[in-house]
Amino acid sequence: MLSINQTKHIRSLQQKKFRTEFKQFVAEGNTLVCDLISSSYKVEMIIASNDWLESNSSLLNKSKATIISAKENELVRISTLKTPNQVIAVFNIPETRIDIESIKSELTIVLDDIKDPGNLGTIIRLADWFGIKNIVCSNETVDVYNSKVIQATMGSIARVNIFYTDLVEFLKSLPSNLKIYGTLLNGESVYSKTLDEKAIIVIGNESKGISESILPFINEKLLIPSYPIGTTNSKAESLNASIATAIICSEFRRKN
To answer: Exposure of 169 by Cβ count < 10 A (0-12 exposed, 13-18 middle, 19+ buried)?
Structure first.
């Protein structure tokens, strides 16, 4: 049975200031929780129905977490979802450090001020799908441990490294010969341009695009053209950030 203090603690983690203070976050749902338990993330507490605990006993035997059997009304009280899952868990937020050598030798996504939790979660799933291990975020990008972001990753958060940093300083630290791609209106079509498999892909803010402070670092300009090419009538103003990321990552992997 959940105590009052445990309930308050779990609910407090819905706010970033408490996630930062306690260095913990909440995950809900069978796939997400199981993926995280099986990863390098350390689980502190698992609250679940008796049925879930029984069917996942072998997984729980590997964990040193506090395990609490909860009734449906208890899960409702601590859930952020309209329809609570059978399992909710509290995980520790890991300490992370950017590995520049890894960044230089692989394809990396850089997120410049992404605000929508769903977009960030989807981009993390896309990175996982396309085998991209690292995502570097501006300090203004939405918190990856926001419950909406965590849910949107569908477990991919367990397989992608996420870093927050000052992007200007980060980009300054990279080798001058490393290609840094960004989508701009004056860019070359992503479908015709040669793409390097060891590179940076910068994805800009949903409404403002790539920041003025980041533009000087873009040495390879990309465009996702609308069709028919050359027409402007009855066109969508722009693409959703996660959709644009999907198109660009797909082209990088197809050509390499």
So the answer is: exposed
pTM: 0.92
pLDDT, mean over the chain: 93
Q: Is the pLDDT of residue 229 over 60?
A: yes
Would you say 49 and 84 are in contact if contact means Cβ atoms under 8 Å apart? no
The Cα 134–Cα 222 span in angstroms is 21
> With contact defined as beta carbons under 8 Å apart, do 157 and 124 qualify?
yes
Strand locations in 93-153 (E): 108-111, 134-138
106-121 mean pLDDT = 97
Kindly tell me the number of DSSP H helices and DSSP E strands found in the chain. Answer: 11, 10
Q: Which two tokens stand for residue 182?
A: 């960004």
> Any idea which of 32-41, 63-72, 168-177, 225-234 has the lowest mean pLDDT?
225-234
Fold classification of 100-255 (topology level):
Alpha/beta knot (3.40.1280)
Beta sheet of 87-92, edge-to-edge order: 24-28, 87-92, 43-48, 66-69
Q: What is the CATH number of domain 4-92?
A: 3.30.1330.30
Q: Domain map of the chain by residue range?
A: 4-92, 100-255
Q: Cα–chain-centroid distance for residue 84?
A: 22
Which residues make Cβ contacts (< 8 Å) with residue 231, sequence separation at least 6? none
